[in-house]
Design brief:
By secondary structure, the protein is an alpha/beta fold. It contains nine helices and ten strands. It has a single domain, classed as Alpha/Beta hydrolase fold, catalytic domain (Rossmann fold). Residues 59-226 form the Fungal lipase-type domain.
Length: 284
């Protein structure tokens, strides 16, 4: 597995953070002016942002829970068979529902004069409008329509998401990879709960291209909290005590965090703690 580097980590982390607010200027992140499609949930809120450069690959950003309704879905721990061409096992019902829910029609508005766009950009914009006008199709169907067009242009897809958005990325990635083999470049999630049952973990085809980032004792990464029922997939990168640990078991993570808390008053006495605070003096 090719390691995730610092630049990639920072890029995806910032995109996941900045994708939450309503205002999102994709151009400032290096994407093409017309390289954006927003997909909305049943309430008309953006749930997925598809971003790309004309001369590069695409990044698909999945938002986490945005409402009480979204949080309640996390409690529905029933199994749901993945909507993939081949058997991919079962996942958390609530997370797959986020992809199955109907997507409202909402126009993606370009803030520049339509007549100034190139013929290729106009065709791309018209394609987006046609997709958004379709009624009764799901979030995943709209995503697949956008993804198919990008893949046909030779682009590979990176999927990233925070919290339940990470679980959506895992499920959507498996579906897209089955339909368009080799289309998924990597999947990077942040603070993601366990997504699937054992059947999904066994069949998941992107384990060598999936990175699951966990910071210290982020409680959401231990949810749904039913041992031996829900399982994580991919490689765990645990960020703790200024280090990166790979595939650290959950029990050991908990023990190390508790130990760190108990020893923290003593640890602050060590000289390396004082040396790391040298940057503070630049602010005064």
């Amino acid at each position: 597995m090719k390691r995730l580097n610092r630049y990639q980590y920072e890029r995806y982390a910032i995109l996941c953070r900045d994708a939450y607010p309503k205002h999102f200027d994709h151009v400032q992140y290096g994407f093409s002016e017309n390289g954006r499609r927003d997909i909305h949930n049943r309430w008309g809120k953006t749930i997925i942002r598809v971003l790309w450069r004309e001369d590069g690959d695409a990044v698909i950003v999945f938002k986490g829970s945005q409402s009480v309704w979204d949080w309640l879905l996390n409690l529905i721990v029933l199994p749901s068979k993945v909507d993939a061409p081949k058997n991919a096992g079962h996942v958390h019902w609530g997370f797959q529902f986020l992809l199955r829910q109907p997507s409202t029609s909402r126009r993606f508005v370009i803030d520049k004069d339509y007549s100034r766009l190139s013929p290729g950009q106009q065709a791309e914009f018209q394609h987006s409008e046609e997709i958004n006008r379709l009624e009764g199709i799901s979030v995943m169907e709209k995503l697949e329509s956008c993804a198919a067009r990008l893949v046909s242009q030779g682009k590979r897809l990176t999927l990233t998401g925070h919290s339940s958005g990470g679980s959506m990325a895992i499920i959507a990635g498996e579906i897209l990879e089955q339909k368009y083999p080799g289309s998924i470049k990597r999947i990077v999630t942040f603070g993601q709960p366990a997504t699937g049952f054992w059947s999904f973990k066994k069949r998941y085809g992107l384990k060598n291209r999936t990175y699951r980032i966990c910071c210290d004792v982020d409680i959401v990464t231990f949810l749904p909290g039913i041992p031996l029922m829900f399982w994580h997939v991919g490689e765990l990168l645990w960020l703790h005590n200024d280090k990166i640990y790979h595939n650290m078991p959950s029990l050991i993570r908990i023990i190390r965090v508790l130990t760190s808390w108990l020893l923290r008053p003593i640890a602050y006495h060590f000289m390396d703690k004082y040396i790391r605070r040298k940057d503070y003096f630049d602010k005064h």
